[in-house]
Amino acid sequence: MPPSTVHHALTMHKDPYTTLGVNSTATQAEIQAAYKRKARELHPDVNHAADAEERFRELVDAYELLRDEAKRARYDAFGKTGGSRSSKNNKKRRRADTGSTPFTDFGFDDIRVGRDDLRNPFDDFLRQRTRRRTNSNPPPKPRSKKVPEVHLTLPLEHAYTGTTIDMAVELPNARGLKQAHNFRLKVPKGAKNGDRLKLKDPEVTVILRLETPEGVDVEGRDVRTSVHINPWEAALGAEVDIPLPKGSLRIKIPAGTSSGQKLRLRGQGIPQKPGRDGEPGDLYVQIQIAVPTILTEEEREAFEHLRTISTFDPRQS
């Protein structure tokens, strides 16, 4: 039997009827209603007064005593103060005649505490507060092992074709000392900037970076580049070859193309990785019209003739 429950039953110094705010003839329904009303007022989660917890415990003790008819009857008979003088004298005489003490008439045999009596609302309250404190401070999670990382720069063409690289790196061992490792890394077709390739032996993560030629940019799987054409190709249209990491590609320049115009070639960017869903990237080609700075005599005559017969004004078009 937990000593705290018996202790409160024996040492209650306040009248339970007064604590609950009911009279000694109150019904069980009135006692329960009074308890619920005062519990809402005194609960330490709501009432932050310094003595709130002690007052709440006294309220629980009073309710536990009065809700049990047997305990209430014993309290009314033996524990209640302010009885008639004659009844007190009779009790004293009975004790004198029998040689009993004040505790003989009210012994531990009169206190029958069952399992249900030990479970009171205050015990539940303490368990809830302990549970909340435990949940609010969970045990720290074990730190995950940090896998070393190395960076690898590859030419852009390997993103189109894939490749296998022999690598030699130094990685920290279990004692923190660097140890040399040689391994072969397979880079799949469709690899792109920022891809992380994880190896188990040795345990390392390789982060890829694609090195692009001058004038070429990569955004995800899309590739952007530019091509220069001459004025008559822009005016008349033409087919020109542009260099790409995977080889030369011939594109058609529409007649009337302006400088700065972009052509989109679907599916000509970085391919998708094998076994993955999704479309390959696109190739964006920006047109740049280049004007000759040195003219032959015939070219100069041709341009001068064009100037005299052409009605085109780019500043008004």
Characterize the structure shown.
- The strands form four sheets. The protein has a four-stranded mixed sheet. A three-stranded mixed sheet has the order 1-5-4.
- It is α+β, with helices and mostly antiparallel strands and 317 residues long.
- Helix content is 36%, strand content 24%.
- The protein has helices at residues 3-11, 16-20, 28-42, 52-67, 69-79, 85-98, 115-118, 121-136, 157-161, 231-236, 297-309; strands at 149-155, 163-172, 178-187, 196-200, 203-211, 217-219, 222-229, 238-244, 247-253, 262-265, 283-289.
- The chain has eleven helices and eleven strands.
- The radius of gyration is 47 Å and the shape is elongated.
- The chain has three domains: 3-136, Helix Hairpins, CATH 1.10.287; 149-211, Urease metallochaperone UreE, N-terminal domain (HSP40/DNAj peptide-binding domain, Sandwich), CATH 2.60.260; 217-309, Sandwich (HSP40/DNAj peptide-binding domain), CATH 2.60.260.
Spatial ordering of strands, largest sheet: 6-7-11-10
CA distance, first residue to last residue: 101 Å
CATH fold-level topology of the largest domain:
Helix Hairpins
Total strands: the figure is 11
Which percent range describes the beta-strand content? 15-25%
Brief characterization of the structure:
This protein is of the alpha+beta class.
What would the keywords be for this entry?
single chain; 317 residues; alpha+beta; Helix Hairpins; HSP40/DNAj peptide-binding domain; three-stranded mixed β-sheet; 11 strands; 24% strand
